[in-house]
Every structure is written in C-alpha cells, then in structure tokens.
Design goal:
The chain is of the alpha+beta class and about 325 residues long. About 55% of the residues lie in helices and about 10% in strands. β2 and β3 form a beta hairpin.
C-alpha cells in the first residue's frame, strides 16, 4: 500500500536565521524536469507558493501541486520540537512549538507550526487544543494541505469537559468546519446527539467538498451503532472512499473495517483497517487502534506471523498510546 503524493514538503534547518535564503524545488509542467528557485517565500498555501527571488524583484507565484521541496530556516525551538516529536516526547514538543509560534514572524511557517501542534495534541488526546488550533489553521488557509489533520471522532472517545464545551459552541457557529468538528464530537452525547446528527445531515450538502464528504462518512457511525449493516451498504462505503481525496480516507476506512467486523468478515475488515493503520495514518491514535484491531483480526484468521508483525508495529511505532500495552501483552502471550 503506497500513498500517492502530489507534493513532497521538506523543511530544512539552514545555517543562519531569518535572513537565510529560502529554496523551492519545483516540478515543471509535464513532469519531465525540475528547477530550484532561491529567494524569500512570501506565502505558501494549499493553492500556491509565492517567492520573491531578490529584494526589489516581482513576486513569482507557482501552484502548490508543482512544489517538490521547500528549504527554509527554522528557529531553535522549531527544530527542537521536531526532534522531540520524533523521539515521542510529545508534551515537550508542544512547549517548543508554542514557543516557536510566538517567535515566528512568517505567517506560512506559523501555519506549519499549527499543523505540528495539532498532530501533538491529537497524539495526547487533547482534542480541545487540537480543535482550537485546527480552526486557526483553517481560517488562515482555507485550502490547507493539512486538512487531513482535522480532529474528528471515528471511534468511541472520552469527551472531556473542556472539549464538550468547545464542541457545543462550535456546532452553533456559521462555519462548516466548526460545525463538523462539534457535531463529530457530540454525535453520541445523550444531550446533543440529535442536534449533531441533524447538523451532519445538513453538512452533507456543504459547498466545501471536504466537509461534505466527511459529514456523510460521519453519519456511517450511526449505522454501525445499529449493528445491522448489509454487505451492499459496505460496498457502497468502499466505493465512496475510493473516490475521496486520499487525505480524507483514514477515518472512513476505519469505519469500513468496523462494519466488516460486525459482519464477521475478517479478511475484509483487516484489509480496510490496514489502510488506516499503515497508509492514511494522519490520526496517530486512530491509526494505532486500527493496527491493533487488524492484528487481532489476523490472529482470529490463524495468520499468526502477520498478527505478530502487526502487534509489534503497535508496540513500537505507537508506543506512546494505550494500545501499545495491549499489543505487548499479546506478543508476550504468544501473539
């Protein structure tokens, strides 16, 4: 399974501070050659990158789809935060990213830092923080390439009071994105379930394609709760997922896997769950859960070696989640 990417983004630490030249590697139209442009990046959004080659020169604009690499300077806190995140020291990474945002003068780099904060907060299950920062990111760039980080619920989650209060406010705003997050979190809340369901139905006709597709998929959770789902319905889900932009597929694939598990279709369930665990793993907690479920499913199928490999994947790659302990116990008991 390989995710087909149209853009590869690389942030590099350059020797100097803000005065260092940025470098952008672009794939020219036709895809046969590439060029590197040096200068100062003025802005970088989900649609385009703007770079001024030299002071006094006109700003040049290129589609984001042509961007292969971006090399720019980072603050010490930014760089340190990345190192800490890679080392699974997520809480320390948050502190560094927050410090970096406070010091960073470039709007487009602050958006990159917001995306990193959202990743950290989702890992820590700080959904109130992740939701708040995602709203800021979406307001700054409506076409953000990091829309895949939107913190929706695809499985049962414990909704803390701070997140519940935030969700009850967001669901009442005029923003489709705010409403989507709020409705997702409140869908199984006894007091707000009906409001959340109705909101998702309204959002399923949103003019924002990403919101529309995700709202429709969120409603599948209600069908799963009924525990009576047909093979035909799951085939419809799979067809819809395959037509979605790839960055939106992680949560829907998890629901597809859950649907197959309800029908005890273990091979189909494992295949769907592995898309979430190994390919569309933008939500760290959901990917860990999906990987553990896939491992357990493989074990039920008698595919012991495959199960052991997946249990190890959870224990190592997702060692900062509660699922790692379950995986380690499974390994200790013979997988």
């Amino acid at each position: 399974m390989k995710l087909q990417l149209t853009t590869l983004l690389i942030f590099s630490v350059l020797a100097s501070a803000a005065s260092a030249e940025d470098k952008v590697v672009l794939l020219l139209k036709g895809g046969s050659s590439r060029i590197t442009i040096s200068g100062t990046i003025v802005d970088y959004t989900g649609r385009s990158i703007q770079i001024r080659p030299r002071a006094g020169m006109a700003v040049k604009t290129y589609p984001t789809s042509q961007v292969l690499e971006v090399h720019t300077s980072q603050s010490t806190a930014h760089s340190r935060g990345l190192d800490l995140l890679a080392d699974y020291r997520t809480r320390e990474a948050v502190l560094n990213f927050e410090k970096a945002i406070a010091l960073e003068p470039r709007t487009w780099v602050r958006r990159e830092l917001l995306a990193l904060l959202i990743q950290c907060e989702t890992r820590l299950q700080d959904y109130a923080g992740a939701g708040s920062h995602f709203r800021l990111l979406a307001k700054s760039d409506a076409n953000s390439n990091d829309f895949k980080l939107i913190p929706l619920f695809w499985a049962r989650e414990i909704l803390k009071e701070e997140a519940r209060k935030a969700a009850t406010g967001w669901i009442l705003t005029d923003s489709d994105i705010d409403q989507l997050i709020g409705a997702s979190w409140l869908l199984f809340n006894s007091k707000y379930s009906e409001m959340a369901s109705n909101t998702l139905k309204e959002l399923s006709t949103s003019t924002d394609e990403r919101v529309r597709l995700l709202a429709k998929a969120q409603l599948w959770r209600l069908q799963l709760r009924g525990r009576d789902i047909s093979r035909f319905e799951l085939q419809r889900w799979e067809s819809r997922i395959e037509r979605m932009p790839e960055e939106l597929r992680g949560g829907p694939y998890y629901l597809l896997g859950a649907g197959h598990l309800l029908r005890q279709e273990h091979e189909r369930a494992a295949a769907a769950l592995l898309w979430t665990a190994l390919v569309y793993d933008f939500d760290h907690q959901l990917a860990a859960r999906a990987c553990l479920k896939a491992a357990e499913t493989m074990k039920q199928l008698g595919q012991k070696d495959e199960a052991k490999n997946l249990f190890r994947e959870v224990a190592i790659r997702f060692r900062d989640t509660s699922y790692a302990q379950d995986a380690s116990q499974a390994i200790a008991s013979g997988g």
